Amino acid sequence: MVKTIASVGLPVDEILEIKKNRLMPKEAAGEMKRISIVTGIHGDELEGQYVCFELQRRIERDREKLAGIVDIYPAMNPLGIDSVTRGIPAFDLDMNRLFPGNIEGNMTEYLAAGMIEDVAGSDLVIDIHASNIYLTEIPQIRINELHEEMLVPLAKETNIDFIWVHGASTVLESTFAHSLNSTGTPTLVVEMGVGMRITKEYGNQLVDGILHVMHKLGIWNGEVKEPKKPIISRNPEDVSYLNAGVGGLFIPAVKHGKELKKGEVIGQIVDPLLGCVLDEVKAPVDGILFTIRDYPIVDEGSLMGRLLKKEACRYE
Amino acid sequence: MNKRIIYEMKGMYRDSFRITGYEFGEGEKSVCIVGSSRGNEVQQIYCCSQLVKKCRQLEEEGRIKEGKRILVIPSINPYSMNIQKRFWPTDNTDINRMFPGYHLGETTQRIADGVFREIMDFQYGIQFTSFYMPGDFVPHIRLMDEGYSSTELARSFGLPYVVVRKVRPYDTTTLNYNWQVWNTQAFSLYTTKTSNIDRNGAGQAVLSVMSFLSSLGIVKYSGPEPAISRVVKDVDMISVQTARSGIFEPLVKAGERVAVGQPLANIVNPYDGEIMETLFAPTDALVFFIHNMPLTYADTAVIKLVRI
Question: pTM for the whole thing?
Answer without folding.
Answer: 0.87
